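INTERNAL AUDIT FORM
Audit reference: QA-55
Scope: verify that the stored structure record matches its stored sequence.
Auditor: D.O.
Record contents follow.
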Amino acid sequence: MQEAPIGIFDSGVGGLTVWADIGRLLPAEDTIYLADSAHAPYGEKPPAAIVERSLACTRKLLDLGAKLIVVACNTATTNAISTLRAQFPVPFIGIEPAIKPAALQSDSGTIGVLATRGTLSSALFATTSRSHARGIRLVEQEGKGLVQAIESGKLGAEDLQDTLRELVQPMLDAGVDHLVLGCTHYPFLKPILAEVLPSNVRVVDCGEPVARQTRAVLERENLLSPKTTAGSHLFYSNADPSVMQALLSRLGSTSQARRLDF
């Protein structure tokens, strides 16, 4: 199993940001990425539907030989990871908004969280917030329309900056000094956020911590690849893969995105 691939899935292309961090930290590992773009966004679906799609993605990754699965989606993690761990024997790595590091580093005592409705309304998010944000004021904002814009390949749309400015303004008015990106799609918005946010607000996401946790679990389970050559990577979408292809190019990958039904 050491030479088997790491499986990664997301509601769409957002988890590519996590894939990139895993690839930088674990360059010898092979990966298989599934974008469930035909059913995106998860954040507006009921919990039962999110669990159903997470099960489908997991089964496909296991069929493709994955040795470990990264649930590269905040909404899927908060709604489905306990079910996945109960039903399948492989290790799972989940995603949580990076509230803890933001809370530890905040000088103002106020941090913003931009996330989907499915994440913000979940029990796991509430537990994480209570555990890591004691004495810190959280200002939550649903990122309405952001996942859809990214899944549609509209990162260059002129009105996207206006949308982001409207979404973050209530958090800026509240005095946040950190903005936690609570959806793996949102790091693709960092260049626009750099134009919208004042210089004193730091943007925090979960990609690097997830990569470190993936390495730690692989080491613990004796699943690290013994290869010394660069890993190979497969990318599949159950919708038009052209958006994924464009984002892979943005991330510096020359891999080919392909269509796969699941």
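Auditor finding: record pair retrieved intact. The CA atoms of residues 7 and 69 lie 5 Å apart.
Action required: none
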